[in-house]
Amino acid sequence: MTTLTVNISETPSGSYPIYIDNDDLKELKKKLDEETKERKRLVIFSEKVYKIYGKILDFKKSETFVLKDGEQQKNIKNYEKIIRKCIELKLSRKDMIIAIGGGVVGDMAGFVAATYMRGIKFLQVPTTLLAMVDSSVGGKTAIDMPHGKNFVGAFYQPKAVYINLNFLKTLDEKQYKSGFGEVIKYGFIEKSCQYGEYFNLIKILKENRDKYEKRDNEFLARIIEICLKLKSSVVEKDEKESGLRKILNLGHTFGHALEEETKYKRYTHGYAVVLGLMFIFNYALKNNLCGREYYDEAYTLMSVYGYEPPCFCGINKKRTLNYMKTDKKSDGNTINLIVPVNYGEVTEKTADSVEFDIEYIK
Ligand code: NAD
Ligand code: GLY
Asked: 106 CA to middle of ligand 2, Å?
């Protein structure tokens, strides 16, 4: 078992633990019971996770809310339903919300926890690789609005994060690959994360494709640990994204716009992020911000993990650019971008929309 600590001075507790292990899920249940003893609790599950693990985790039905699957469920109607459930259970500030599922459930449960009674404690139990390497840590919580993804939200840190690798055994191929979208992103921002140790994540990823295929536990635990060390390093320095934290959005401006343009139906989040990475590497190359050698290396890595430049059939370029301009990180007229410059290093740029082209030049 590995324990990491996220040290954030602004949270009431100042810091919180991330536990990474491979224990039997019955052990996990015991730990969650221990964390919540003498408290009431609401456990919010992803639908598929509830179907597979509901029995073994064995929470009372009355304290459970199952959120249907899909990004479209991260909406205000479901937010209200969950708030009503908190009221029905008479949860108070002493009580606890537990999110068990992917990033959709984590973001939703976190936002409920941040806002119900101005904030009640919550635990993250991520069950997708994407949620383990990224969304369960750092305190970004949100729901989507028709105007945009994650449009309403709060920075609100969990009390603890419980990562159990056993969940990954039932993750389908598409979601597993999606998680590696965010992992690859961490490779491209590693040096900019200002973590004290250098892992060379790009190299680790390039050399271990076979372990990825086999879902090798040791490899996955190492990858999760590296990504979370990098993420924690950034979040500890800039919890509310006034500066450094923007680097975590590498690939996301175009990625989010693509998700919105395709109504969350065509790409998983991680896939959209990789398309955003391809887009931004092209932008960097065209604008002489990164060299051809690094560009080629980045494309090779993405291709090793099964990502190729796609056909953008049916994607409306004007609308997609507009989504980029209305992104939270932009000011409505220009587009805020995180751009790769050197191996593992990124910088921030503001671009005018006319500079954009969604055709890949590879
Ligand atoms: P998801 O939550 O939609 O889960 C994907 C699917 O996998 C769902 O059908 C779910 O039920 C299923 N699933 C989950 N665990 C499983 C398991 N162990 N076995 C079998 N099936 C399982 O998708 P996601 O990729 O986990 O999260 C994407 C969301 O995370 C997006 O809304 C994105 O905006 C958000 N996100 C947030 C942050 C943040 O910092 N808060 C960071 C990155 C992404
Ligand atoms: N996933 C982006 C962030 O946590 O800031």
From this structure: 13
How far, in Å, CA of 235 to CA of 245, rounded? 6
Sequence letter at residue 135: S
Q: pLDDT (tens digit, 9 = 90+) per residue, 256-304? A: 999 999 999 999 999 999 999 999 999 999 999 999 999 999 999 999 9
Distance of alpha carbon 337 from its chain centroid, rounded? 18
pLDDT digit string (tens) for 137-154?
999 999 999 988 999 999
What would the pLDDT profile of 233-255 be if each residue is shown by its tens digit? 999 999 999 999 999 999 999 99
Cα 132 to averaged position of ligand 1 atoms, centre (Å): 9
Q: Environment class of residue 208 by beta-carbon count within 10 Å: exposed (0-12), middle (13-18) or buried (19+)?
A: middle
Q: Are strands 64-67 and 345-352 parallel, antiparallel or unpaired?
A: unpaired
Q: What is the C-alpha to C-alpha distance for residues 303 and 180, in angstroms, rounded to an integer?
A: 12
Q: Please give the domain boundaries of the chain with CATH numbers for all domains.
A: 2-171 (3.40.50.1970), 178-360 (1.20.1090.10)
As annotated, the active-site residues are 118, 140, 182, 231, 241, 245, 249, 252, 256, 269
